[in-house]
């Protein structure tokens, strides 16, 4: 699992796109301090407003404010109310909610709703609607507390969530308000990971994280208006691909395709977005990754340990407020200023003077602290301050984290009364509570402009040093990296000879490109040769590196490891050495991409949706052959003691695209039509259908006869 190479540059792009799309970053180009993520006319901003509208409608329905939801629909999505099936369900729920309030006035309003709205809708909503209308009238007689009544299910609070989920699915599809690609990709990869581990009997090393991140609940699917009894005019390949990708029945896949008018990828997005994610946890994973990769401002501290370890943050603490803002502060955090000797004591102090800011918050000894302060390496610290000047320019270009602060004004022409806003607040996650977030943001701005110098911790010094070395490596400045690292930690390259080889290989290739053959040979004699002599795995890469001298017309740098891959490997190795561990998102991506490979190897086909979700780009590492072995060795060595997940299979991957192909299992050639026929009739996964066909010479009719015999 840990040996898989991931294109972290692609993940950077996906994660930043997610943060921008979800309005998690502060727009530094704006003159205001609380700006939106993009101009109102941009597609991403439009999609964000649509998703925000859907969330407001969902929350209104979940707390029984049906009138508010209908008003929002009438103003922003009136086409939904033209569907009398949905309108009938909304009016029926409104009738129940009016009765639930119990006052004489509300009961009178419920009777008015019956006469003017619910009864007319029941006449033409759908065939069963009138019977449902007569049945719900019993709610006038049987109260909400009578659990044995024939309308107990109509009184159930879960009905609110069902209609809220259905409306969300319909609006998402009609408004094309799909979640960002990264969010959908995570849902898909985690779903495959869980299924693969379950079917193969493998214990997942990231099960705790995936269970908390991907929730079991799904929104109801949007129902097409056409008759369900019509013969589906869809390709069976599309039906089976959708059914197995998002775990639907065949009929469910047909209905989903019918709703999307046969558009396979739109149907897939409709289905994948029905699955719910823990948004608060996802934001924390993204923030942690962005800080680690130097994409946003911040320091590596224990601020992330609370939610990522599944622990409750004490109420009333400043950490609770930090959740609301999404950790806007780049330097002020709980563990940045905690002295190592006082970790097991409770302290409450804030001291601000003209030269420093120290903030010590409550820290309990039983908390699992994933900060780097527990792993102290004082012998490495002497070179950090000297090296910090290299990264000043890079740090100034980092984005600022805003957090999930959703404001009503982000939706034009949508207004809530003060009472409604207060009512909704307790249903929102901490990251969506605007009041606390605004207070914190104002505090951060005040700190920024007060001239207070913030003293960072040793951990942040290490973190900045690692980022600076990553930046130098990503620019191809190999000799500078070696010099800086040697000055800071002389034993680092002794423990990581493969990285020294790759850096010196890069330096060698740059000299070859410049025509300095004597200089390149000096590098080979002084470094590459001795390293290969002491590490046999480097001997083959050394030979192929030297071959570059014979081909002066080719671009020498194309033969070496890509700068981005080398920079990422260096960052992970140096981080571990200095106690700056890689973020959970990187571990999650390695594990899920590994199981994605294994799953489709078992299925003996190509993933139809990997291009849409950028999974193919995440796996695409353009590494030349001369460094393949070294890179794999580097990855294996960088994660000592980590859990491995391997499976053995003789199956081969088949590129099937959109056209039927033939798949080999042993010596038997199975036609794609036969595979689909067995999958459909026996409701089997693709791999099982292929194995059965292999037993009966690829004859689908024989397989079906034998099973039903």
UniProtKB/TrEMBL annotation:
Transmembrane segments: none annotated. Residues 30-47 have a biased composition (Low complexity). Pfam families: CTLH (PF10607). Residues 365-375, 636-665 have a biased composition (Polar residues). Residues 29-49, 365-403, 632-665 are annotated as: Disordered. InterPro entries: CTLH/CRA (IPR024964), CTLH_C (IPR006595), Ubq-SigPath_Reg (IPR050618). PANTHER family: RAN BINDING PROTEIN 9-RELATED. This is CTLH domain-containing protein. It comes from the Eukaryota. It comes from Kingdonia uniflora. Residues 50-106, 462-519 form the CTLH domain.
């Amino acid at each position: 699992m840990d040996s898989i190479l991931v294109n972290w540059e692609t993940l950077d792009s996906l994660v930043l796109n997610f943060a921008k799309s979800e309005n998690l970053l502060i727009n530094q180009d704006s003159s205001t301090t609380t700006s939106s993520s993009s101009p109102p006319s941009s597609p991403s901003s439009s999609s964000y407003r649509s998703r925000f509208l859907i969330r407001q409608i969902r929350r209104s329905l979940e707390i029984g404010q049906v009138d508010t939801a209908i008003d929002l629909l009438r103003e922003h999505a009136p086409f939904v109310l033209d569907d009398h099936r949905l309108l009938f369900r909304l009016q029926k729920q409104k009738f129940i909610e009016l009765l639930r309030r119990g006052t004489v006035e509300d009961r009178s309003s419920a009777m008015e709703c019956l006469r003017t709205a619910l009864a007319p809708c029941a006449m033409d909503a759908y065939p069963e609607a009138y019977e449902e209308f007569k049945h719900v009238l019993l709610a006038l007689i049987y109260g909400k507390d009578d659990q044995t009544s024939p309308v107990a299910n109509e009184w159930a609070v879960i009905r609110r969530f069902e209609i809220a989920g259905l409306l969300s699915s319909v609006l998402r599809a009609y408004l094309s308000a799909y979640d960002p690609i990264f969010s959908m990709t995570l849902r898909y990869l985690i779903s495959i990971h869980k299924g693969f581990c379950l079917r193969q009997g493998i214990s997942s090393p990231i099960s705790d994280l995936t269970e908390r991140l991907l929730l079991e609940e799904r929104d109801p699917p949007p129902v097409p208006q056409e008759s369900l009894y019509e013969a589906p005019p869809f390709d069976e390949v599309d039906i089976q691909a959708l059914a197995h990708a998002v775990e639907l029945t065949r009929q469910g896949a047909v209905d989903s395709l019918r709703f999307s008018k046969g558009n396979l990828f739109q149907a897939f997005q409709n289905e994948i977005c029905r699955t719910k994610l823990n948004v608060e946890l996802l934001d924390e994973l993204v923030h942690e990754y962005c800080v680690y990769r130097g994409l946003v401002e911040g320091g590596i501290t224990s601020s992330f340990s609370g939610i990522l370890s599944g622990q409750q943050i004490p109420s009333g603490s400043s950490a609770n407020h930090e959740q609301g803002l999404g950790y806007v502060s780049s330097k002020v955090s709980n563990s940045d200023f905690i002295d190592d000797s006082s970790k097991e004591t409770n302290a409450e102090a804030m001291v601000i003077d003209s030269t420093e800011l120290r903030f010590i918050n409550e820290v309990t000894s039983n908390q699992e602290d994933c900060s780097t302060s527990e792993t102290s390496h004082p012998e490495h610290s002497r070179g950090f301050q000297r090296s910090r000047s290299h990264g000043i320019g890079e740090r100034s270009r980092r984005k600022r984290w805003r957090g999930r602060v959703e404001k009503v004004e982000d939706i034009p022409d949508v207004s809530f009364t003060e009472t409604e806003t207060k009512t909704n607040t307790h249903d929102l996650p901490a990251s969506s509570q605007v009041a606390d977030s605004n207070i914190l943001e104002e505090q951060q701005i005040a700190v920024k402009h007060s001239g207070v110098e913030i003293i960072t911790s040793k951990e942040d010094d290490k973190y900045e040093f690692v980022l600076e070395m990553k930046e130098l490596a990503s620019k191809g400045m190999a000799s500078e990296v070696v010099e800086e690292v040697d000055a800071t930690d002389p034993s680092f390259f002794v423990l990581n000879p493969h990285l020294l080889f790759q850096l010196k290989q890069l330096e060698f290739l740059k000299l070859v490109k410049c025509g300095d053959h004597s200089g390149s040979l000096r590098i080979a004699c002084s470094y590459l040769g001795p390293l290969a002599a002491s590490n046999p795995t480097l001997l083959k890469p050394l030979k192929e590196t030297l071959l570059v001298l014979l081909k002066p017309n080719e671009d020498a740098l194309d033969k070496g490891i890509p700068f981005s891959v080398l920079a990422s490997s260096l960052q992970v190795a140096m981080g571990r050495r200095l106690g700056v561990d890689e973020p959970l998102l990187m571990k999650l991506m390695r594990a899920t991409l590994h199981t994605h490979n294994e799953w489709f190897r078992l299925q003996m086909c190509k993933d139809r949706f990997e291009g849409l979700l950028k999974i193919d780009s995440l796996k695409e590492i353009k590494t030349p052959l001369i460094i393949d072995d070294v890179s794999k060795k580097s990855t294996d060595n960088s994660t000592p003691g980590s859990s491995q997940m391997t499976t053995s299979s003789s199956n081969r991957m088949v590129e099937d695209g959109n056209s039927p192909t033939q798949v080999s299992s042993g010596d038997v050639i199975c036609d794609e039509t036969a595979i689909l026929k067995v999958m459909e009739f026996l409701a089997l996964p693709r791999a099982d259908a292929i194995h059965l066909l292999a037993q009966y010479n690829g004859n689908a009719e024989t397989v079906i006869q034998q099973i039903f015999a």
